[in-house]
Amino acid sequence: MNVEKKLYELIMKYAKVSKDYEIKMEDDLVYELGMDSLSLVELIVDLEEQFEIEIEEDKMDVIYKYGKLLNYLQERVGQ
After folding, report:
1. Which residue of 25, 30, 50, 71 has the fewest CB atoms within a 10 Å radius of its CB?
2. pLDDT of the residue at 79
3. Alpha-carbon distance 36 to 29, whole Å?
4. pLDDT, one tens digit for every residue, the chain (79 residues)
5. Cα separation of 16 and 31, whole Å?
6. In angstroms, rounded to a whole number, what is the distance separating the alpha carbons of residues 23 and 77?
7. What secondary structure does DSSP assign to 8-75, as a single string?
8. 20, 27, 28, 36: the active-site residue
9. How far apart are CA 22 and CA 37, in angstroms?
10. Backbone φ, ψ for residue 65 (5° rounding)
11. Cβ neighbours around 54 below 10 Å, total
12. What is the pLDDT of residue 62?
């Protein structure tokens, strides 16, 4: 499974940007991509289901930046 591609698809499901927006590693999911708290919760649920992982509460700070989230997921699923 391509983690980066799947993450991009899931983020674009909730982001409030144009569909052709190219997400940058430093993009903040709230400020640059326009996600609100409900969108973030839904994204976390989708990520946990899609990658069959549980995102620990103490790791929640990684979800706000695209690059940090991607690295975290790649480490968790072994890519």
Report:
1. 25
2. 64
3. 9
4. 699 999 999 999 999 999 899 999 999 999 999 999 999 999 999 999 999 999 988 888 888 999 999 999 999 998 6
5. 10
6. 21
7. HHHHHHH--S-TT----TT-BTTTTT---HHHHHHHHHHHHHHHT----GGGGGGGGBHHHHHHHHHH
8. 36
9. 22
10. -110, 130
11. 11
12. 82
Annotated catalytic residue 46? no
Provide the token pair at 44. 């976390």
Residue type (1 letter), 42? E
Task: Return the half-sphere exposure (C-beta side, CA atoms, 13 A cut-off) of residue 77.
Answer: 20
Angle between helix axes 66-77 and 3-14 (nearest 10 degrees) is 140
